[in-house]
Amino acid sequence: MHRKPHTHHSPEFKEQALLKARHRGTRSLLNLAGELNMSPGTLKRWVLDSGKAAEQAHGETSAALDGPAASWSPSQRLTALQESYALNGSALAGWCRERGVFEHQLAQWREDFCTPIAPASREATGAFRELQRQHDQLQRELRRKEKALAEVAALLVLQKNFQALLEGADK
Predict the structure, then answer these.
(1) Which is more confident, 53 or 47?
(2) 133 and 103 in one domain?
(3) Which end of the chain has the lower number of beta carbons within 10 A, N or C?
(4) Is 151 helix (H, G, I), strand (E, B) or coil?
(5) Number of folded domains that form the chain
(6) Mean per-residue pLDDT for 29-51?
(7) Angle, nearest 10°, between helix axes 89-99 and 103-114?
């Protein structure tokens, strides 16, 4: 295996490479380095160094916000919203670059968190109404059967009393 010649990369190239590395999805760093025509070791070192720099800059670990932003869990998105809330302008742009997030993603997440849950869909409402109709129908049927049972019980009591009267009259 031959080594690629040592080349100096511009800061812009490095920033773009790091952005692609953060948003690579399921692709490996090796594959991405090949696409960028650079050493996989260099790309890996850049990714590790950028993570360490972010930790030192914030005095805390940024592990909670690892991986592509599109695949972050709701708690990670909430953490991102909390961290970026007071930032604006170039400070917000720098924060977004460090974490591989776009400002429009933050805006969408903020809207998602602040929007109340939408009312039930038409299909769900229709299904609920159908279940309610069936429930009401079953309740009517149950009341009808309870009345019929009460009538039968009353008839049995009357029949028993009538037979007792007939037996008493025969004696």
Answers:
(1) 47
(2) no
(3) N
(4) helix
(5) 3
(6) 85
(7) 90
Q: Are residues 81 and 134 in the same domain?
A: no
Q: How far is CA 97 from CA 9, 10, 14, 135, in A?
A: 18, 16, 12, 56
Rounded to 5 degrees, what angle do the CA atoms 97, 88, 58 make? 55
**1 and 52 part of one domain:** yes
Q: CA Rg, the chain, in Å?
A: 36
In the numeric block, the tokens 């009808």 are attached to 144
> Long-range contact list for 35-38, CB < 8 A, 24+ apart?
37/4, 38/4, 38/7, 38/9
Token pair for residue 93? 């742009």
Chain segment 69-82, per-residue pLDDT in tens = 777 788 888 888 88
Q: Name the band, by pLDDT with cuts 50, 70 and 90, for residue 119.
A: low
- Residues of the chain with pLDDT > 70, as a percent, come to 82
Residue 66 has a pLDDT of: 66
In sign, the C-alpha dihedral spanning 38, 42, 44, 50 is: negative
CA–CA distance, 95 with 62 (Å, rounded to integer):
12
What distances in angstroms separate CA 137 from CA 123, 140, 146, 150, one per listed residue? 21, 5, 14, 20
